[in-house]
């Protein structure tokens, strides 16, 4: 393996560290923590998607995360920690942040808050704010306990669907990172809800499994979604979640008549039989990204996603809309 200063163009052997069984997990996590401590990059499982880990306080390691992903430098990263007490070492918490942390963390939610000064500017793309989260996954929590705070963007090449298995990570960045910890498939399957608490009005910058209603019940105020236009979340400016195959999203009362030669149809269970001449699969948060990657691997001509109005959750509708290129 190359030294920590090696750039992303220099290939290294990416180690696959098994954390699927208790007997291998401890050794895998120690090894991963040692690699991270030496400035290397290690992908790790969370409940949402796999993250590309680097020590959050090591600016050089963080810079290589941007290089490996091909990520624009204006798109800030999330800092992951292992317990609510550790959040204050990264961000400045107010009562709202403390309420969310005690009600929902660990869990698939990220808070944007004023940053502590020592968090490298490169991790937060020069912003005065920082995104923080505590993943609800035993392997991630053990790793964070051993290695300290980690930046963790999704461990895909920028613009590709996020990885929900260790294999997906290897498909995108094998040879560019020191290791990937295999913790099996991710339970949630789409990225965390990003809630901006840096201003007076809380705003959801990225929808996820935790929706506005759940946050409203904790904070007791109405929560708005940042609907495209204002772009307060730099990451949502860039195209995301898209396979190489074209994706067509159809939200309509009646199933469409399909004219594509070899389409993959993703739909809800209720409409699965409406497409007898196509390969059709049930779409869900958990399976979406794996299905989009399969569409590329198998070589379908087009992915058609069909649902009736109101059938998909806010988080799932956001991701399929972006995958179809209808919203950037
Ligand atoms: O579920 C997740 O959040 C996964 C797992 C690995 O934890 N991580 C993830 O990271 O999705 P990433 O980098 O792919 O997405 C981070 C999102 C981006 O949309 C980014 O623009 C936004 O969070 N973000 C980060 N810091 C921000 C900040 N200071 N202000 C506004 N948005 C921010
Ligand atoms: Mg991402």
Broad structural category: alpha/beta
User: Which regions have little confidence, pLDDT < 50, spanning 5+ residues?
Assistant: 1-6
Helix content: 25-40%
Helix count?
Answer: 9
Tell me the β content.
15-25%
Q: Using the alpha-carbon principal axes, give the shape.
A: globular
Q: What ligand species are in this complex?
A: threonylcarbamoyladenylate, magnesium ion
Question: How far is it from the N-terminal to the C-terminal residue, by CA?
Answer: 37 Å
Q: How are the strands of the largest sheet arranged?
A: 1-8-2-3-7-4-6-5-9-10-11
**Order of helical and strand elements:** EHEEHEHHEEHEHEEEHEEEEHEH
The largest pleated sheet is described as: 11 strands, mixed
The count of strands amounts to 15
Mean pLDDT: 93
> How big is the Rg?
20 Å
Blueprint of the fold:
Elements: E1 15-18, H1 22-37, E2 42-44, E3 51-55, H2 59-69, E4 78-80, H3 84-87, H4 95-104, E5 109-114, E6 129-133, H5 138-147, E7 150-151, H6 166-173, E8 179-182, E9 193-196, E10 203-206, H7 212-219, E11 224-225, E12 247-251, E13 263-267, E14 279-282, H8 288-298, E15 302-307, H9 314-323
Parallel strand pairs: 1-8, 2-8, 4-6, 5-9, 10-11, 12-15, 13-14, 13-15
Antiparallel strand pairs: 2-3, 3-7, 4-7, 5-6, 9-10
Helix pairs in contact: 1-5
């Amino acid at each position: 393996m190359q030294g920590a200063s090696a750039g992303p163009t220099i290939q290294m052997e990416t180690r696959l560290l098994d954390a699927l069984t208790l007997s291998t997990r401890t050794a895998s996590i120690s090894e991963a923590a040692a690699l991270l401590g030496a400035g290397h990059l290690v992908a790790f499982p969370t409940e949402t998607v796999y993250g590309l880990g680097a020590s959050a306080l090591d600016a050089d390691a963080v810079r290589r995360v941007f290089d490996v992903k091909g990520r624009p430098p204006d798109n800030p990263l999330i800092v992951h920690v292992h317990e609510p007490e550790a959040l204050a070492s990264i961000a400045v918490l107010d009562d709202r942040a403390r309420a969310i942390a005690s009600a929902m963390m660990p869990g698939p939610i990220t808070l944007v808050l004023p940053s502590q000064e020592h968090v490298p500017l490169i991790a937060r793309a020069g912003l005065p704010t920082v995104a923080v989260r505590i993943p609800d996954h035993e392997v991630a929590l053990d790793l964070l306990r051993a290695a300290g705070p980690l930046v963790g963007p999704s461990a895909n090449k920028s613009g590709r669907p996020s990885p929900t298995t260790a294999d997906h990570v290897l498909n995108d960045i094998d040879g560019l990172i020191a290791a990937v910890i295999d913790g099996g498939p991710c339970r949630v399957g789409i990225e965390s809800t990003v809630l901006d608490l840096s201003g007076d009005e809380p705003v959801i910058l990225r929808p996820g499994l935790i929706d506005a209603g759940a946050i409203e019940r904790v904070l007791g105020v109405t929560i708005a979604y940042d609907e495209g236009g204002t772009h307060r979340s730099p990451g949502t400016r860039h195209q995301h979640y898209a396979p190489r195959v074209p994706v067509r999203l159809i939200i309509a009362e009646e199933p469409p008549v399909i004219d594509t030669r070899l389409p993959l149809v993703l739909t809800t269970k209720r409409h699965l039989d409406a497409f007898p001449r196509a390969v059709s699969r049930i779409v869900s948060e958990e399976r979406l990204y794996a299905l989009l990657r399969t569409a590329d691997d198998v070589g379908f001509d087009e992915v058609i996603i069909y649902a009736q109005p109101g059938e998909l959750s806010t988080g799932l509708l956001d991701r399929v809309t972006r995958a179809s290129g209808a919203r950037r």
